[in-house]
Specification:
By secondary structure, this protein is mainly β. The protein contains one helix and 16 strands. The termini are far apart.
Length: 230
């Protein structure tokens, strides 16, 4: 006869081992991330913990930060100077990382007011692997809260609110024309918000982050990275 209690113990042990394996794999994964501040610079005023070590970060709107590493799971909590009544640090920002990604880019947006969770930053996480965002391409990220239309060289695309798209563009000795327009819902029309000429090479990938200006309109932050084509 089948011993039911023994089977239950066996199944419980099997499930426990499986969950432990998943947890171990998640914690063993190493993320490499860079940071960008869409507003005022973060100059070692935010940090994340690895054991007893405080890793302070630098992020500006001018360029990608240096690369940081994190291997304690798919969520990074960033702290500042605030502490609670027990002296424990209070979270200023939380980044939820995509499982399986090897490289991510974090956009820190300083909030005007502390949010309901008590944080002072909103963090946008972008998967930044070269397989998804190769050299020779542009990636547009729409953080403006508006529907956008983009034309770069002969390529045209639209971006829904919060959407990002990558487009491969042929390199040219001449600068490429770039136009970005925002859809004005109340007036049912497109309004040009940005126009410029950008250089482009095969060994260059360009990240374009589009956000709102404090006094209206849109602003475009452009971050270029060169590297070796494999």
């Amino acid at each position: 006869m089948i011993n039911i209690p023994i089977i239950k113990i066996f199944l419980a042990t099997l499930i426990s081992s499986f969950l432990l394996l998943i947890s171990s794999n998640l914690r063993a994964q190493t993320y490499e991330f860079q940071a960008i501040s869409t507003g005022e610079p973060i100059l070692r005023t935010l940090w994340y913990a690895e054991g007893a070590k405080k890793n302070k970060i630098v992020a500006t709107a001018l360029m990608r930060s240096e690369s940081y590493k994190y291997d304690l799971g798919p969520t990074i909590i960033f702290y500042g100077d605030r502490v609670d009544e027990e002296g424990k640090p209070i979270a200023e920002a939380i980044a939820n990382l995509p499982i399986g990604a090897t490289q991510v880019l974090l956009f820190f947006n300083k909030l005007k007011n502390t949010n309901e969770s008590g944080q002072n930053y909103d963090v946008t996480v972008l998967k930044d692997d070269h397989s998804d965002f190769p050299f020779g391409s542009f990636r547009f990220v729409n953080a403006s809260g508006k529907i956008l239309a983009v034309k770069i060289s002969e390529e045209q695309l639209t971006l829904a609110v919060g959407e990002s798209k990558t487009v491969k563009v042929k390199a040219s000795a001449k600068d490429l024309g770039v136009d970005i327009a925002a859809y004005v819902k109340d007036e049912d029309k497109w309004q040009k918000g940005y126009s410029s000429m950008w250089g482009h090479r095969e060994n260059l990938r360009t990240l374009v982050f589009i956000a709102n200006r404090p006094k209206g309109g849109i602003r475009t932050l452009r971050f270029r990275e060169s590297g070796e084509i494999k």
